[in-house]
Design brief:
- α1 (49-56) runs parallel beside α3.
- Helix content is 15%, strand content 25%.
- The chain is of the alpha+beta class.
- The protein has one domain (22-118, 127-357).
- The strands form three sheets. Strands 2, 3, 4, 6, 7, 8, 9 and 16 form an eight-stranded antiparallel sheet that branches. Strands 5-15-14-13-11-12 form a six-stranded antiparallel sheet, with helices on one face. It has a two-stranded parallel ribbon with strand order 1-10.
- The protein has helices at residues 49-56, 65-79, 85-91, 99-108, 283-290, 337-343, and strands spanning 82-83, 113-115, 128-132, 136-137, 139-141, 171-179, 184-194, 215-221, 225-227, 229-230, 232-241, 245-247, 305-313, 320-328, 345-353, 356-357.
- The protein contains six helices and 16 strands.
């Protein structure tokens, strides 16, 4: 299986959508997916009677079970796709009006996307479905009053505002293109971040820096992914580096495995992606990469942002679900892994979105 090597233009991650913003998105049409740089074909299930029976047995408040089943069957037959029965059953129980219900379901889904060659160039045509959002704000995850009560992880996060400026929305918008006939998907994304600390550089010449509490904008055009199953499920972790822009190497990559948070536990980071003579092999280096403390000592604080996105859609014309999260920490000692982990701040959003036929 090949990894999608993203065509990085300036900086930022692939999409995701907050449900209360999605009201402004146009008419429903086919499904879509994020893009996964290391997608694994987790559940290759053929379209047999037992598969359909399993899907039909699940119920849902807003994601109508019978419509979901019919849509998957029709799209699978039309485009010669297999059915991921496990994913279909999970989605049949989602209340699309509840971010908590969406987050819970998304946490159970396994990616089933495969990347195309890095130099493959997709084309827009009459079979392309566009999922587009306006700018929407992420919500802070934590235990303080007003924090988002639902999250893709089971961890607690810092209630401080040392990474993402307090009282300022961290904004995301995106476009995702899906072509069921060609079995392709790709995306354009944009962000507006306001960080509490002065940064090294972002979307500018390395070394020029950016002042604290100044909105910084970046965008990304992704590579192309392909799929063979319905529902389509994809996820990807990214690093937004202020020196190097958006990269898929986060320092925590484990082959095809992506992590929806930097935290492996309440006191430890995810394991390194690398071994031997590597920057990422050293825990203090991985801390410094995402540390936003200007007085961290020893190695510099590079003030990168860890990002994770996940996306799924069940069938052509079906409802798509998405999530996006950003993380960073602020600690005065890069060698104190537990202290840094406790300092990690997180913002995220989950929601539903429909698409429209692409128009030239």
């Amino acid at each position: 299986m090949k990894k999608i090597l993203f065509i990085i233009k300036t900086t930022f991650i692939i999409l995701f959508f907050n449900s209360y913003v999605f009201a402004g998105v146009s008419t429903p049409t086919p499904t879509n997916a994020l893009n996964k740089i290391a997608g694994s074909m987790s559940h290759s299930v053929t379209n047999n009677a037992q598969t359909i029976a399993n899907i039909s047995s699940a119920t849902s408040t807003l994601l109508n079970s019978s419509e979901l089943t019919a849509g998957i069957q029709d799209a699978a037959a039309k485009f010669g796709l297999s059915i991921d029965a496990e994913a279909a059953t999970i989605l049949a129980g989602v209340d699309t009006s509840s971010s908590e219900s969406i987050s819970k379901a998304m946490a159970q889904l396994e990616s089933n996307i495969e990347g195309k060659d890095w130099d493959y160039v997709p084309t827009l045509d009459q079979d392309t479905i566009l999922y587009e959002t306006d700018w929407f704000a992420l919500q802070k995850v934590g235990t303080q009053a007003g924090a988002n009560p639902s999250t893709m992880t089971s961890f607690d996060y810092a209630t401080t505002h040392d990474v993402f400026t307090e009282g300022v929305d961290q904004m995301v918008k995106g476009k995702v293109y899906v072509n069921f006939k060609k079995r392709e998907m790709w995306a354009d994304m944009a962000i507006k971040l306001t960080l509490a600390q002065e940064t090294i550089s972002i979307n500018s010449t390395p070394g020029t820096g950016a002042a604290a509490n100044v909105q910084q904008q970046a965008s990304l055009e992704t590579g192309t992914a392909t799929f063979t199953e319905l529902p389509i499920v994809a996820d990807q972790a990214f690093r937004l580096s202020h020196s190097w822009g958006m990269t898929t190497g986060t320092g925590y990559d484990q082959g095809d495995n992506e992590f929806n948070t930097m935290k492996a536990s309440a006191t430890a980071l995810q394991a390194t992606c690398c071994s031997g003579d590597s920057f990422w092999d050293d825990t203090a280096s991985r801390v410094s990469e995402y540390n936003h403390d200007n007085n961290s000592g020893g190695q510099d604080a590079w003030k990168s942002v860890y990002m994770y996105g996940k996306f799924t859609t069940a069938s052509e014309g079906g409802t798509a679900l998405g999530q996006i999260a950003i993380e960073g920490g602020h600690h005065d000692d890069n060698s104190d892994e537990a202290g840094f982990v406790a300092s990690i701040e997180r913002q995220e959003a989950s929601g539903a979105i429909t698409g429209k036929a692409y128009e030239n």
